[in-house]
Amino acid sequence: MPDSTPAAQPPAGTPLLQTVGLTKRYGNFLANEKIDIDIWPQQIHALLGENGAGKSTLVKTIYGLIQPSEGEMRWRGEKMVLSGPSEARGRGIGMVFQHFSLFDNLTVAENVALGLDGKESFKDMSARLEQVSNVYGLPLDPKREVWQLSVGERQRIEIVRALMQDPKFLILDEPTAVLTPQEADQLFTVLNRLKSEGRAILYISHKLEEVKRLCDTATILRGGKKVSTCNPKAETAASLARMMVGSEIKQVKAAANRRITVPRLVVNDLNLAPDDPHGTRLEHISLELKGGEILGIAGVAGNGQDELFAALSGERLSQDPGTVVIEGIAAGHLSITQRRKLGAAFVPEERLGHGTAPRMKLSENALLTGHAASGMVQHGFVNTAATLKTVDRATETFDVRKAKRDPEAASLSGGNLQKFIVGREILRNPAVLVVSQPTWGVDAGAAAVIRQALLDLATAGAAVLVTSQDLDELAEITDRIAVMFHGRLSEPLATADASREKLGLLMGGSSLDQKEAPHAVSA
Amino acid sequence: MALVEAIILSVLAASTPLLLAATGELVTERAGVLNLGVEGMMIVGAACGFGGAWLSGSIIIGALCGIVAGTLLSLIFAMMTLGLAVNQVATGLALTILGIGLSGLIGAGFVGERIAPAPHLHIPVLTDIPFVGRILFGEDGFVYLSLALVVAVWWFLYRTRAGLVLRACGDNHLSAHALGYPVLRIRMYAVMFGGACAGLAGAYLPLAYTPFFIPGMTAGRGWIALALTVFASWRPGWLVIGAYLFGAVTILQLHAQGWGIGIPSQFMSSLPYLATVIVLVLISRARTGGSTAPAALGTVFVPDR
Predict the structure, then answer these.
(1) What confidence category does residue B246 fall into, taking pLDDT thresholds of 50, 70 and 90?
(2) Which residues on B lie below 8 Å from A87 (Cβ)?
(3) What residue ranges in A184-234 does DSSP mark as E strands?
(4) Model pLDDT, residue A372
(5) How close A288 comes to chain B (CA, Å)?
(6) B290 pLDDT exceeds 70?
């Protein structure tokens, strides 16, 4: 029930779950310090905090994955010790992970089966899976293997898997990060329904407006400690952000004197068959992006954004060189390195594995994309000093927080690694930057830094293409927004005219006017 | 006809140890563990298997001794790689070297001894059917056991929940751990199964193939079994194709050398390796998309608690 008092009033009775003085220590490092949280049935409880604030440690402890160093948990007033997640699931605690706990080479149904206790037959389970996914509007094909699915579809598996356990208490770690507004609304309907069924929900998110809209209570963590428990509906997004960060977050702003110049990235009627039988075929994609301009591409995951990124970056080549033109030069047949030499830079969606080699140092990762056009390689030898300097510059300019000067990529938090990757590309002063999901799973502070960097890059004259599923982000930084659906790209709308409703319609495959949606961009 | 029958019989016999060892390694690798010590576990299985049979006079006790020896050796591997999180490749190689040395020590007293080889099945009427009778109903028990094992492993991996969990551990141990599965324990069982199969495969050689023990008698079959696992894309069915193909070319090239075909014998001896690699590569290329290797294969897992 919504509660309008400034501080959340606890309902009468016993909380479903309580943590009392919960502490988790790794050596001298306190990941969680004396955290008290009360979770009530029929409430959606937000857990807010920057990356590294201790949210993950806390929920992993509640889910039985981590044993607390001190303090205890109480389930319906009685002390609870969890030896593992299956025990947590046995009590009715379900979890949707942020870093998906999925198995790429197994099918959707097998993935779901692994998250259940295995009492029902595989056939019954598959049938129930289809039923649950349809009831909650989260369509899934049980027979497909996960490696073929988009990020958005993978998230659906996680959510459906948790829902199939019929949990009394459900933990969701940033569930809407990859959903369209309509999908997020559907999820909120689901969550509100679960709430009205008497279940408790712990909801981790960076989207403060969403938390204000959905949640009854919010607990804010900072540096492993609880800062406050409040009623998010009585707070403003700015006040919540202040509690999370401990200081004001800088507002992203575009420079007034941005100049739109010549076309720097042009795509002419690009058609590309997918290399995976379940991929999306790109059809008649055309766009024109001028210097100083930021074009956003919205769309539900899996509608060809990955394929478009691959075609633009040169991971997939096209037969016709003229389909991709970078800086006036036909580049459709050129390799990634050749395109980089023309002044293009690329930031893929996956930070670990695609954007960086996880087990290699940052300096080595800087070299991997910078070797072609930055003086890091001289006569075939690596200039270690230059690679380290790149790391230092990216660290300074984009406030990358790390334990050592040159750690392994995998040791950085998501937000800091993303700042490094974006920084690494921007420091090369690209003429064209193609970036996919720049702030996915990144905390508010880091997201603001990255968005500002993209705006500054455009101000400096570069053409920036941003693919994102976060419409707020696109509204904040782009000049025009086009929508991808089933491998086709819509006519771009001026961002000022692109309402959520219009974009939502395009994302669902409807056209805004009566005539067949045109593919070509007016020259 | 008699020659063809003899060839097929010897092909089956030559293929069986490969199939047994490769089936065990397939299960181990499906759980995400790369045990390169197959050759070592096989040769110790051969020495202990022969010793057990020679001392007791029973082929079955000999086979059990081989299984136990292979399992014990695999437990050393499990302790190192799972318990102490040591590098799997290095440990596996060390295990092979250890096994070869150990088998020489164990088998020193048996060299030159002979036992009666494992009896072949004889069903009146059926076995006496000309040509197919002996091939289908007149093999030694190990041949049937190896085929039954492949079917059982296939059924286990794809039709049971435990098999699904095992494949999950091999695909992504972090996720399996996050869902609450005891990754290390599951992997230990898989490694032990691999050891038992390798021990049995080794024991087959002195118990059924040649009824005596000589040091180094596995002659690289453990390595072939490892390669078969990879080229069969970790699929039990293709393992059978690969093992029998290898066995077939091995025997055929021997006969071909006997017939005096003017091709250098060294080339002929390399044919089984070439043929198996080429055929299995062609098969795995035919499968489109998706990685076939268990994604977590050979990576060390340390659960964070």
Answers:
(1) confident
(2) 180
(3) 200-204, 217-222, 225-230
(4) 67
(5) 33
(6) no
- Smallest CA-to-CA distance from A331 within A417, A242, A416, A270 is with A270
Rounded alpha-carbon distances, angstroms, from residue B148 to B140, B155, B289:
13, 11, 30
Q: How does residue A277 score in pLDDT terms, banded at 50, 70 and 90? A: low
Instruction: Kindly state the tokens that stand for B52.
Output: 């057990």
Closest chain B residue to A100, measured at CA = B175
* Interchain CB contact of B266 with A (< 8 Å): no
- Nearest residue on chain A to B169, judged by CA atoms? A103
Asked if the Cβ–Cβ distance from B181 to A114 is below 8 Å, we say yes
Residue of B nearest to A121 (CA): B161
Question: Is A17-92+167-245's fold the same as A263-350+430-508's?
Answer: yes
Supply the mean pLDDT for chain A: 85
Cβ neighbours of residue A386 under 8 Å, at least 6 residues apart?
Answer: A374, A375, A376
**Strand, coil or helix: B74:** helix
Residues of A in contact with B302 (CB under 8 A): none
B178 contacts chain A (CB < 8 A): yes
Indicate the residue of B161, B177, B290 with minimum beta-carbon distance to A105.
B290
The token duo for B243 is 């093992």
Nearest to A241 by CA among A265, A289, A202, A209: A209
What number does CATH give the domain A263-350+430-508? 3.40.50.300
What is the three-state SS of A462-515?
Answer: CEEEEECCCHHHHHHHCCEEEEEECCEECCCEEHHHCCHHHHHHHHCCCCCCCC
Percent of chain B with pLDDT over 70: 95
Q: What residues 60-99 of chain A have any CB closer than 8 A to a CB of chain B?
A: 64-67, 84-89, 97
Q: What is the pLDDT of residues B217-231, one digit of tens each?
A: 998 899 989 988 987
Contact B164 A145 (CB under 8 A): no
- A148 has a chain B CB within 8 A of its CB: yes
Q: How far is A115 from chain B (nearest CA, A)?
A: 6
Nearest CA in chain A to B158: A110
Nearest to A205 by CA among A355, A400, A31, A44: A44
Q: CB of B286 within 8 Å of any CB in chain A?
A: no
The CATH architecture to which A17-92+167-245 belongs is: 3-Layer(aba) Sandwich (3.40)
Residue A371 contacts by C-beta under 8 Å, 6 or more apart in sequence? Answer: A337, A377
pLDDT-derived band at A467, boundaries 50, 70, 90: very high
Min Cα distance A314 → chain B (Å) is 20
Residue type, position B75, single letter:
L
Which residues in chain A are contacts of B164 at CB distance < 8 A?
106, 110, 113-114
| Nearest CB to A103; choose among B172, B177, B304 | B172
Tell me: the pLDDT tens digits for A231-260?
999 988 888 888 887 777 677 777 777 888
Does the CB of A2 have a partner CB in chain B at under 8 Å?
Answer: no
Kindly report the backbone phi and psi dihedral angles of residue A233, in degrees, each rounded to the nearest multiple of 5, phi listed first.
-70, -25
List the structure tokens of A413.
């938090």
What is the C-alpha radius of gyration for chain B, rounded to an integer number of angstroms? 20
* Domain extent listing, chain A: 17-92+167-245, 263-350+430-508
pLDDT of amino acid A521: 41
Entry pTM: 0.72
Residue A511 reports pLDDT greater than 80: no
pLDDT of residue B19: 96
With contacts defined as CB-CB under 8 Å, which chain B residues touch A148?
Answer: 289-290
Confidence tier at A1 by pLDDT (50, 70, 90): very low
Q: Is the CB of residue A106 less than 8 Å away from at least one CB of chain B? A: yes
* Radius of gyration from C-alpha coordinates of chain A: 24
B288 touches chain A (CB under 8 A): yes
